Amino acid sequence: MKEERADAARNRAKVLAAAAEVFAAKDPRAVTMDDIAKAAGVGRGTLYRRYPDVASIAVALLDEHEAALQRGLLAGPPPLGPGAPPAERLAAFYTAMADLLEAHGDLALATEIGGRRFEIGAYGFWRAHVLSLLREARIPAPEALADTLLAPLAPEVFKHQRAQGLSLAKVKGALSRLATVVENRPG
Amino acid sequence: MKEERADAARNRAKVLAAAAEVFAAKDPRAVTMDDIAKAAGVGRGTLYRRYPDVASIAVALLDEHEAALQRGLLAGPPPLGPGAPPAERLAAFYTAMADLLEAHGDLALATEIGGRRFEIGAYGFWRAHVLSLLREARIPAPEALADTLLAPLAPEVFKHQRAQGLSLAKVKGALSRLATVVENRPG
DNA sequence: CCTTAAATGGACATCGTGTCCGCTTATTCG
DNA sequence: CGAATAAGCGGACACGATGTCCATTTAAGG
């Protein structure tokens, strides 16, 4: 395992810092490899060396923020972490994701660039989490429901709701209501 | 109001027919104006004369199919049309949309090309419908919930579920479970 | 220092977009 | 019926983004 060369490390940092600014400054879906290269003062080839496309750069930036939430889900205090009933944990997850989208919606949006939402980034992790909650709640055929329940967290959807003038609280309220579907009730 | 010239009408038909085949033949998100022009035996300028982009062509093709469902919602027999309780109507709507996505998923996918899902096509219609059901069910703050409930119908989501091996029935099952959120229950 | 391989960055080829305008063809009117 | 007129057509063009390639630069180690 060779060390990363000093100039390489420096450039990696420059790129990520510059990319964060670029994503914040303009429509994240319109950001181009050139934009980031220019902003970072780096050639395009250098970018491609590490990241295959713009979405990957956004993922790299987002990872850091998502990791915190992921730890909370796995081992944090209830209701986010283990210990609370599934419905409450799902609601807490929704709330936390809404906060994350509110804070880093630009990056999340950039993540969707190639339409690879399901392969790239943390989608698999969120899905596994929801799936385990559904199983714990003894929901029949939980596989399809997991994707269904994650759909409203698509960055596009969240952004659209906020752009419409819906407050963060209102969006969270809607998601919380959704979370009640995991409560088993008389059928 | 001038009549459409005969050759123009002929070309419109040629274009739509060719476009339908092209969308069916390859990844609808990768279809280009050129592809359609070539397939229709028409110049690109002719395409741009009527349709500003690929998504619009897909919308034109999809409209026809969506119109039937729209009529059903407004004036058809229950539970799709008026008369049934909101939860049942929502479930019926979900089922019908799933069938529509199953039959014309390729077009629906092409509709999302520019990331304009919320402005283009029938999204506004579906939203208005769901909103009215939520109001009828006396759900508080229904605006945010409307978008939330429509999110799982995003063509990308449906396609992903089906591609994973989930049967149409399973997907419908998940959606039906979702529909139960409009049932008022003890809080 | 000097060697060596990693790292860089810009040139290149390719593709898709959207516009523009000279040519063609349907329609209308004398 | 044949010319005038305007609608319709389609390819050429300029532009912008992508991803690759390789000559040059630069760090790291002896």
Automatic annotation (TrEMBL), chains A, B:
Residues 32-51 bind DNA. The lineage of its organism: Bacteria, Bacillati, Actinomycetota, Actinomycetes, Glycomycetales. This is TetR/AcrR family transcriptional regulator. Residues 9-69 form the HTH tetR-type domain. The keyword DNA-binding applies. PANTHER family: HTH-TYPE TRANSCRIPTIONAL REGULATOR RUTR (PTHR30055), POSSIBLE TRANSCRIPTIONAL REGULATORY PROTEIN (PROBABLY TETR-FAMILY) (PTHR30055:SF209). Pfam families: TetR_N. Transmembrane segments: none annotated. SUPFAM superfamilies: Homeodomain-like (SSF46689). Keywords: DNA-binding.
